[in-house]
TrEMBL record:
Residues 1-69 form the HTH merR-type domain. Keywords: DNA-binding. Pfam families: HEAT_2 (PF13646), MerR_1 (PF13411). SUPFAM superfamilies: ARM repeat, Putative DNA-binding domain. It comes from Gordonia phosphorivorans. This is MerR family transcriptional regulator. Signal peptide: none annotated.
Amino acid sequence: MLIGDVAQRSGVSVRMLRHYDKIGVLRPSARTTGDYRVYSDGDVERLFQIESLRSLGLSLAEVAAALEDSEYSPADLLDRLIVGTEERLAEEENLLRRLREVRTADPQRWADVVHLLPLLRGLQSASPVRRQLSAFGMNDDDASRLARPLAEAVLAESETNTAGALRWALRRTGDAALGALLSALDDTDPVVRRRAAQALADLESEAATAALTALLDDPDPAVRQRAALAVGPRGSDAARPVLLRMVIDDVADVEAAEALGALAAHRGTVDEVAEQVIAELDRRPVGDGARLRLAQTLAELPGAPALAALRRLREDEDPNVARSATYLVRLATRA
């Protein structure tokens, strides 16, 4: 049969048959003297096999592999198809939930629906670029109306740049997404709690600060650290031991030292915090890298005790500590 006959009988377009020939999935057994494609009965049978496999959701590459490789496992293939179908069903359920949320947002005009739906689809896209563009495409009103799905997108996001864009959009909702973020704090997955803590850190309301303060006792150290960096500068003294431990353990020590300084200044406890840092420094043996970080932390604590300690450290046995203390004293006295 010529290509037109095959197309008419199979329902597969001539264009698609030519594409199959080009990529090698289905090449006709012969050609006429005029170079027309001639398909045998076996070719037609293979075509129906191709279309049957494609109807299951296989890509053309998978179809080719299944037809050419005698050891290609149908069971493995079916398992992958089942997983893929389950994922698509989950996406459809997700879209249904999003549509209900658009309805909850009470759109007044078709233009509102037409505007909001692409943003929702973008948030649930498999492409991080599309998710990012969706976040950047929201105005303040969009973000507020889509606060919950936006929060859910933040909690699910693993790509760093996209996560930043989503949090940027979420900040524009104020406390509209607070409920979704607070619910995530009970999640058994520490990664979800970390994302929730990061998002809450961008909110400056009393409710967000209270939630972050509660996270200072979270079993996951990364959650505690994120919370401490956020609420320390807001004056939560409960963050002090976490921040000090971060300096000692070399975990975002510069940020932790700055947060300690801001905490002490906010509460008027600069000398008290300085004495705690000095006591911890004195317990560390020479050569312990934590001593250098603790010495540098003293520079974030203006006042007599911190300056006196730095002057004393200019004669420290550890040359790195001594050099750092000399430099920091010089800076402090110039000021």
